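Is this the right way to post structure tokens for a design question? Let me know if I should format differently. Anyway, here goes:
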């Protein structure tokens, strides 16, 4: 029986090639997109899950509460792990690490800029299992002077040679011996690593000569703890509370530090700590969004199949009549028609699954991820089977129900009646759903594009054009002055500035500040920007009161002067002035302010206009600027007339003469600003892609529904033509229903799209508005595309010979 069903299905495919091609195309597009979306979701939801582990692993995070609000950080003070081990001697699984985002690794004449370097202790492998390929990791993480490379890193450094025992140099000052090679870090970890270095090798020089024993310093330190029982969380947090009260409150009066335990599986989706996470985090709503889009596309393709199958029903009427006359029951007919659907969807899913391998590399490159493809994984197997069953049932049940319900007598007389009003309403409702989905995506794509245009054109309070930033490897006064002198001599450079980093930079010092007389009572969170007297000119900041640093200020803060005799001056931004309670910039000039780095107090000599130190997701925060050569690890260079190859070559030559053992790397400031919105840029491109796919599927759906409508109204069209109806009039009659469905879909889609996009825009502290014309463009675009899609079919039907249609009676 089943064999006959498949034979019949194959013959029907041959007999109705156009029908098969439309259904195959629609289903294939939606299935391939759905599989890719499913792989993304499976990958993202697998982060930091260790099957079979008896431990509950947590990261210690910092929640600070002050009068100005709460702050959250994943990085914690470096002495915390030692204090925790002392307070909990029975807990052996407490690991302290330091994460270095990027630094130079060299040996011989070879130099590499290595990313994701983790200084780890001997407890680390017990919490994050490592697969050893060569060597021994037990000694490597217990003693200073050792490094462990991943397979990919070892291959990049030494090719096919054995790396164990080789010596490498980290940051040109730390000599290390390669002790082992391990498997690459899993792609689904929040803590990526390309190299592990023994934690006992960590010195203050690694983090800019900052003291590792201070509770006020966090930098890149993280603490992890493995608990055999999740019920111990409260007790551990009580211990952390007492540690915080003893060690942090005296450093930050007015601020309450609370250490909490964050479950490992929560890290990837918790964006409270995203700014200080080693890896990236993702909003769960993003997965819901792309999952909903994948579902909508599958439903749209199934609706197309339903409409096309229903349109084909009249051609199968006599076949149904003959089968029923020969004794076939309705159940037999439903089995037959469903078998056709299952066969088609099986072919589609198999081809889509085989072609995923060609699309996945491009997707990984686009998303900057490493999503694996493993069809032997039980989840992916169930994904394909589930997709096959769901697509087949959604596509085939309704057509099978309609076709199998034909009366054999009327079917044989070719007098199959028009479907009942309830079924007509169902079909129209499905088409409304298709239009609704397309319009929501069109509105979303326009709003995302509008916001991206807004963030790219909004003044940031500084000049991001014609400026290049270069990270400095060391902070030695003689070398800094030599580099500055060589850069000043290069034609085409208008100014150069030594600093901790440009206005938008990953290099910030976060601390507390207040008026000198209030500092010991309450501290306000502030970002500290260290920069020299050329910073204002190089980055184009705007003074609103007072003055900027001058040569006298630079002499009074020089590195050669003893700490006790240095005389600092501060420049604040407008927000920092308002946070101190002053209504005007002029009023704060001359007032003494204290900030948290060694409780330095100094007068305010100037106020600059607010400028953005982060993306437009965040509101402008208080900023304090100070000349502090200790923090100069960046040089900003402004070109007089834009970039040129000659200028960049001259800069590299100057750099090499001062730092011959370092890799030269430059980053244009405008590119750094644009990188702040790379996720939004991807969202925009995804919206554009999904909108295009949705429109393509909808066009196929229109063809299907229109085929059905024309099939039903063949004789009506003939009669109208005989009675004198024009082609224009007939085309309007055939298409007016679709125009009405579009407007109904728009009335539903508009408020849904407004709600969703307004919610998305709330993630930005500075955002565009959702203008009325956005909705107008969406409905106009849908109407225009619909008219183009149906024009050929309606005009063809209107020009058909009426005699042929009436003769069939």
């Amino acid at each position: 029986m089943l064999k006959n069903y498949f034979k019949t299905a194959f013959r029907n495919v041959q007999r109705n090639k156009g029908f098969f091609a439309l259904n195959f195309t629609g289903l294939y597009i939606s299935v391939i997109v759905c599989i890719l979306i499913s792989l993304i979701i499976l990958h993202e939801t697998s982060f930091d899950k260790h099957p079979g582990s008896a431990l509950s692993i947590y990261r210690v995070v910092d929640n600070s509460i002050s009068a100005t609000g709460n702050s959250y950080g994943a990085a914690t003070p470096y002495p915390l792990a030692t204090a925790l081990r002392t307070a909990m001697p029975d807990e052996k699984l407490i690991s302290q690490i330091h994460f270095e985002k990027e630094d130079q690794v060299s040996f011989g004449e070879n130099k590499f800029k290595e990313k994701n370097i983790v200084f780890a202790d001997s407890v680390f492998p017990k919490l994050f299992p490592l697969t050893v390929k060569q060597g021994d990791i037990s000694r490597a993480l217990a003693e200073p002077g050792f490094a462990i490379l991943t397979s990919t890193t070892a291959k990049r450094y030494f090719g096919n040679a054995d790396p164990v025992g080789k010596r490498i140099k980290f940051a040109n000052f730390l000599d290390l011996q390669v002790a082992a090679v391990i498997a690459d870090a899993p792609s689904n970890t929040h803590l990526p690593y390309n190299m592990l270095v023994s934690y006992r090798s960590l010195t203050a020089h690694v983090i800019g000569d900052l003291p590792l024993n201070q509770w006020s310093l966090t930098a890149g330190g993280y603490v992890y703890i493995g608990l055999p029982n999740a019920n111990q969380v409260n007790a551990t947090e009580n211990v952390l509370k007492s540690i915080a009260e003893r060690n942090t409150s005296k450093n930050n009066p007015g601020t309450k530090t609370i250490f909490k335990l964050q479950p490992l599986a929560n890290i990837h989706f918790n964006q409270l700590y995203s700014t200080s996470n080693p890896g990236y985090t993702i909003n769960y709503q993003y997965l819901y969004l792309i999952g909903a889009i994948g579902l909508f596309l599958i439903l749209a393709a199934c609706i197309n199949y339903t409409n096309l199958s229903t349109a084909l029903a009249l051609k199968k009427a006599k076949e149904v009549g003959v089968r029923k006359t020969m004794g076939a029951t309705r159940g037999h007919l439903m089995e037959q028609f469903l078998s056709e659907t299952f066969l088609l969807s099986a072919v589609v899913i198999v081809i889509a699954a085989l072609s995923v391998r060609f699309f996945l590399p491009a997707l990984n490159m686009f998303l900057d991820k490493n999503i694996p493809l493993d069809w032997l994984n039980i989840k992916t197997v169930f994904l394909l089977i589930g997709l096959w069953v769901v697509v087949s049932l959604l596509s085939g049940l309704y057509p099978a129900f309609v076709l199998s319900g034909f009366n054999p007598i009327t079917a044989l007389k070719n007098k199959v009646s028009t479907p009942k009003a309830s079924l007509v309403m169902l079909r129209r409702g499905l088409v409304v759903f298709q239009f609704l989905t397309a319009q929501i995506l069109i509105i979303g794509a326009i709003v995302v594009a509008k916001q991206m245009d807004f963030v790219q054109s909004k003044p940031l309070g500084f000049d991001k054009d014609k400026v290049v930033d270069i990270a400095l490897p060391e902070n030695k006064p003689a070398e800094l002055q030599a580099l500055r002198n060589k850069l000043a001599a290069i034609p085409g450079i208008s100014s150069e500035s030594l600093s901790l980093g440009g206005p938008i930079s990953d290099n910030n010092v976060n601390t507390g500040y207040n008026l000198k007389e209030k500092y010991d009572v309450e501290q306000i969170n502030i970002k500290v920007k260290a920069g020299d007297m050329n910073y204002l000119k190089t980055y184009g900041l705007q003074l609103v009161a007072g003055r900027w640093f001058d040569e006298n200020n630079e002499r009074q803060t020089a590195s050669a002067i003893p700490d006790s005799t240095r005389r600092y001056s501060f420049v604040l931004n407008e927000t920092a002035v308002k946070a101190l309670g002053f209504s005007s910039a002029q009023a704060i000039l001359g007032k003494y302010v204290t900030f948290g780095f060694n409780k330095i107090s100094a007068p305010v000599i100037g106020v600059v206009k607010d400028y953005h130190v982060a993306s437009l997701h965040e509101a402008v925060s208080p900023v304090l600027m100070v000349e502090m050569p200790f923090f100069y690890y960046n040089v900003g260079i402004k070109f007089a007339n834009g970039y040129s190859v000659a200028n960049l070559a001259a800069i590299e030559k100057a750099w090499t003469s001062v730092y011959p053992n370092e890799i030269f790397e430059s980053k244009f400031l405008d590119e750094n600003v644009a990188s702040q919105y790379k996720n939004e840029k991807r969202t925009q491109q995804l919206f554009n892609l999904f909108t295009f796919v949705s429109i393509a599927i909808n066009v196929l759906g229109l063809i299907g529904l229109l085929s059905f409508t024309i099939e039903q109204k063949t004789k009506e069209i003939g009669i109208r033509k005989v009675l004198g109806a024009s082609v224009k009039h007939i085309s309007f009659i055939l298409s007016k229903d679709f125009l009405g469905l579009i407007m109904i879909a728009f009335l539903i889609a508009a408020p849904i799209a407004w709600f969703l996009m307004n919610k998305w825009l709330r993630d930005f502290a500075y955002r565009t508005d959702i203008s009325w014309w956005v909705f107008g463009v969406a409905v106009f675009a849908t109407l225009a595309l619909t008219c183009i899609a149906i024009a050929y079919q309606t005009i063809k039907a209107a020009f058909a010979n009426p005699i042929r249609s009436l003769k069939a009676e």
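Format looks fine. Someone answered above. Worth noting: The mean pLDDT is 83. The two ends are 36 Å apart (CA to CA).
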